[in-house]
């Protein structure tokens, strides 16, 4: 819930390689109160079956920048293990190319920021949603 002195954040992840939400991805939320201030880890969550984090911590008053850290390596490792017997030989070593994704963005008091992550094994995209 946003107020006049704080911003709020939500996110979700869609795995574009399969056209489905990415479930059980750990997401860490950090904030700072100016570009020269240190990061304060506020806590985290994991995506649900719909790829959403519905319980991210509230941002403290005075937050100007937010960072979302997505731990995507365990998600892709599990996905690779589940699909290994059905997949043709892969030319890659099996290592996850992007083991984690960190998204940093500026916020204004009273605004809500929904930040979707579109993810696949070889790239990602992020945008400010609604």
From TrEMBL:
Q: Which Pfam families match?
A: Transthyretin
Catalytic activity as recorded in UniProt? 5-hydroxyisourate + H2O = 5-hydroxy-2-oxo-4-ureido-2,5-dihydro-1H-imidazole-5-carboxylate + H(+)
Assembly, per entry? Homotetramer.
- UniProt protein name: 5-hydroxyisourate hydrolase
Question: What is this protein's function?
Answer: Catalyzes the hydrolysis of 5-hydroxyisourate (HIU) to 2-oxo-4-hydroxy-4-carboxy-5-ureidoimidazoline (OHCU).
CDD domains, alphabetically? Answer: TLP_HIUase
Give the EC number(s) listed in the UniProt record. 3.5.2.17
Task: Tell me which InterPro entries the record gives.
Answer: Hydroxyisourate_hydrolase, Thyroxine_BS, Transthyretin/HIU_hydrolase_d, Transthyretin/HIU_hydrolase_sf
Q: Does the keyword DNA damage apply?
A: no
Q: Family per UniProt?
A: Belongs to the transthyretin family. 5-hydroxyisourate hydrolase subfamily.
Q: Which GO terms describe its molecular function?
A: hydroxyisourate hydrolase activity
Keywords, in A-Z order: Hydrolase, Purine metabolism
The protein's matches in SUPFAM superfamilies, at most eight in alphabetical order, are given as:
Transthyretin (synonym: prealbumin)
Top-level taxon: Bacteria
